[in-house]
Amino acid sequence: MAVRDGSSAQSGSLAKALDMWVAEELRAAGFDAQSVWPRLVRPRVLDPSVLRFIGSLDARTAEKCCEVLPRFASANANVLGSTYCKQVDVGLSSWMTGPEILISTKTMSSAFGKNLANRFEEAYGDAKNLKGRHPLATLGFFFLLNSSIVDEPRNFSKAITMLQKLRVEDDAYDATCLMLVDWEEDGRLAISPLNEKVPEGLSATSFFREIVDLTLLRGAPESHELAREKRRLL
Question: How is 61-106 classified by DSSP, letter by letter?
Answer without folding.
Answer: HHHHHHHHGGGGSBSSEEEE-SSSEEEESEEEEETTTEEEEEEEEE
